[in-house]
Design goal:
The protein is an alpha/beta fold and 491 residues long. The protein is built from 14 helices and 19 strands. Strands 1-13-12-11 form a four-stranded parallel beta sheet, covered by helices on one side. Strands 2-3-6-7 form a four-stranded parallel beta sheet, covered by helices on one side. Strands 14-15-16-19 form a four-stranded antiparallel beta sheet. It starts with 5 loop residues before the first helix and ends with a strand.
Length: 491
């Protein structure tokens, strides 16, 4: 190698210094580049939760209404967010939104790619794809004996019409689902979990629907004994199931056979529903089961006809629950009803079908109930969540408003996170008890795994003694253990 002159050497040094400085400046610039600002509803999830202390393995994540739709993100930002939420056990959800189909598709594909890269579930919110069968088109209206069109206005906003006038809407609704399904398939992305919150649309038999159908010429021609409410209910629910199956469940399952597909409030049960949605009310003459002032409606067994692959019971603090019961311990009014709902789903859902329970803590006020109910306590609500898990629920889906989010997320995430310590029981255990005491006392729930039982005991009266419970041909004693689970051997 030849000698380098001083001039050339100085030139090289200057060049190196410039290069180094340029590199440092570039690095500094990169470091100072602002990260994409997350929307408030996503940030509250990150602020309120902590990474799990126990690995959740392959169990379902916790789903939160706030952990949905972070907006447009680049690939790196999407992966970082998905990873942060997963560390907390939370599954990020993307919406398919037909009115904004191109943007929502692009955003959901970005999130899905990140989830696939990290080996996580791709989670989709498909409510928008199912609206609306009753879209205001006069062809969907009821028709009276004089040929005049009319609507059922007892469900609040929207025009509810004739359940036998919806066939021409099926292709349109199905296309809304298939648009996204085909795009994901083309991108080589599987969909693992799809839920919808499809409620006030399509055939519904409650409120003034029965009266409207008895007035409708087409309904009377289609239901032989329309005066019989149970026959009317059966006819409408069969149509409702068929619509959900043909336009929603089948397009997804035919392309993604392993996908979990379901809808709010649709789950196996014992023939009765223990709750009313905010827009529903009881009408005299409808069959029910009485319990103090509660009227539990007779319900159609719709789950098997929808083609859904997971159950989605609704375990909510509806304000009307508070006035149904006379328990002096007002916490037990909430606990009793909500555990009835969870136990109903747990006892009647096949073991191979996951149960994803919608939950909510703040009192859901509506109409005349506003302000009358005493809030369910935090401690007993969390006890309820534990008992729900020990009676078959696989994971929770929290719904709540923006102002309620921090506290709601905190309460449910604490239980979900602590429960992962018992992952083997959650994954493989079998519920031992579905009974709900008719009076405040001691509530026991548990999961059996081989010769061990994971037990939770909650007392609504002062009790220091052990309580016996039968498990198969064994009988065990359960001691008080406030605020914690116990593992008891059956040997």
């Amino acid at each position: 190698m030849g000698r380098i002159s001083k001039t050339n050497a100085c030139g090289l040094v200057v060049t190196w210094i410039i290069a180094i400085l340029a590199g440092n400046i570039t690095s500094l610039c990169r470091a100072e580049e602002p990260r994409p600002k997350l929307p408030a509803h996503i940030q509250v999830v990150l602020n309120t939760t902590k990474p799990l202390s126990f690995d959740r393995g392959g169990r379902l994540p916790l789903y939160l209404w706030q952990a949905m739709d972070p907006g447009p993100l680049g690939d790196e930002a999407a992966e970082a967010l998905v990873k942060k939420l997963n560390e907390r056990g939370v599954g990020l959800i993307s919406s398919w939104n037909p009115p904004n189909r191109e943007d929502s598709l692009a955003q959901s594909l970005t999130i899905a790619k990140a989830q696939k890269k990290l080996g996580l579930r791709v989670n989709i919110h498909a409510t928008g794809c199912l609206y609306a069968f009753f879209n205001g088109d006069e062809r969907t209206a009821h028709i009276d004996d004089e040929g005049k069109l009319f609507w059922d206005d007892s469900f609040g906003k929207g025009k509810m019409g004739c359940p036998f006038a919806l066939d021409f809407r099926r292709l349109h609704i199905r296309e809304q689902v298939e648009y996204f399904v085909k795009a994901f398939k083309k991108a080589g992305l599987e969909v693992d979990f799809v839920f919808a919150d499809w409620e006030i649309d399509g055939p519904i038999e409650f409120n003034k629907a029965h009266a409207a159908s008895k007035r409708c010429r087409r309904c009377r021609e289609s239901i032989e004994n329309i005066d019989d409410f149970e026959e009317f209910q059966r006819a409408l629910r069969k149509i409702r199931c068929q619509l959900q199956r043909e336009v929603y469940a089948e397009p997804i399952k035919s392309n993604f056979p392993k996908a979990l597909v379901g809808n709010y409030g649709v789950y196996p049960h014992n023939g009765y529903r223990y709750w009313y949605d905010y827009y529903e009310y009881y009408v005299d003459g409808q069959p029910f089961q009485a319990d103090q002032r509660a009227k539990y409606r007779k319900w159609y067994h719709e789950f098997g006809e929808t083609g859904y692959t997971f159950a989605m019971p609704v375990v909510y603090t509806w304000a009307r629950i508070f006035d149904w019961y006379d328990y002096a311990d007002t916490d037990y009014r909430w606990f009793y009803n909500m555990l009835l709902v969870a136990s109903n789903a747990g006892q009647n859902t096949p073991a191979e079908v996951p149960i994803i329970s919608f939950v909510h803590w703040h009192t859901i006020e509506s109409g005349r109930s506003a302000g009358k109910a005493k809030q369910f306590s935090e401690a007993k609500y969390q006890e309820l969540l534990w008992h729900t898990l020990l009676r078959g629920t696989d994971t929770f889906f929290l719904w709540c408003g923006r102002q309620q989010a921090a506290k709601e997320i905190e309460l449910v995430h604490q239980v979900y996170a602590e429960a992962q310590e018992y992952g083997e029981f959650l994954s493989k255990g079998t519920p031992i008890n579905f009974s709900v005491p008719r009076q405040p006392g001691t509530v026991i729930s548990g999961l059996r795994l081989a010769d061990r039982v994971l037990i939770r005991r909650t007392d609504f009266v002062e009790s220091t003694g052990s309580i016996g419970i039968g498990i198969g041909n064994k009988r065990i004693r359960v001691e008080p253990a406030p605020g914690r689970c116990q593992i008891i051997s059956l040997k």
